[in-house]
Amino acid sequence: MCPLSYYSQNRLKEFELLTPKNSSKRTIQIDEFVLGELKTLKKIMNEYKLRKGKEYNDQGFIFVDTNRKPGYPMIIKTVGRRIKRILKLAQLDESLTPHSPRLTHTSLLAEAGVSLEEIMERLGHKNDSVTRDVYLHVSKSRKKEAAVKFSNLMDSVRNKNSG
Question: What keywords is this UniProt entry annotated with (predicted)?
Fold first, then answer.
């Protein structure tokens, strides 16, 4: 998928595999739940491959076209349309994009106290300003927590000085 595949005017058979935009390939840790979901998807795709036989273009993609060109990478526009449809059915914000989970994941990492360096490594960022400016949308609760911590610090300083 994006940024790995390029389509010439959305013709499935005319794709070119490209490197990630910042040329960084990396390995990230995932939890057992996500791993289990990926294994389930792989099992479903293996069953689909068997049904399609020689018609299936097996190049190891995870998200593939299952209609017109079985096994070819899914067109990015298709991903966007599916997400919009799911959001509408779920009565959620339809302005979300396929990139939105990456932003949310990053904000949740920051809320969980994961260091900027670890977040940068996970995202493949070399420059911390990109991570800070674009991705690190710290939530209201995190901002409130900072205010409470500062207030507690000031209370302890006042108590030391008055005691």
Answer: DNA recombination
pTM beyond 0.85, yes or no: no
How far is Cα 141 from Cα 160, in angstroms, rounded to an integer?
A: 28
The candidate with the shortest Cα–Cα distance to 113, out of 92, 142, 89, 87, is: 142
Residue range 110-158, pLDDT digits in tens: 878 888 889 888 888 888 787 777 666 665 667 778 888 889 888 888 8
The b/e string for 27-46 (b: 16+ C-beta within 10 A; e otherwise) is eeeeeeeeeeeeeeeeeebe
Tokens of 144: 């409130």
Domain positions in the chain:
99-163
Segment (H or E) for 108: helix 100-111
Backbone phi and psi for residue 15, each to the nearest 5 degrees, phi listed first? -105, 155
Q: How many residues does the chain have?
A: 163
Per DSSP, the three-state class of 150 is: helix
> Which residues are CB-neighbours of 77 under 8 A, at least 6 positions away?
10
**Phi and psi for 66 in degrees, rounded to 5?**
-115, 10
Q: Which two tokens mark 20?
A: 């990630």
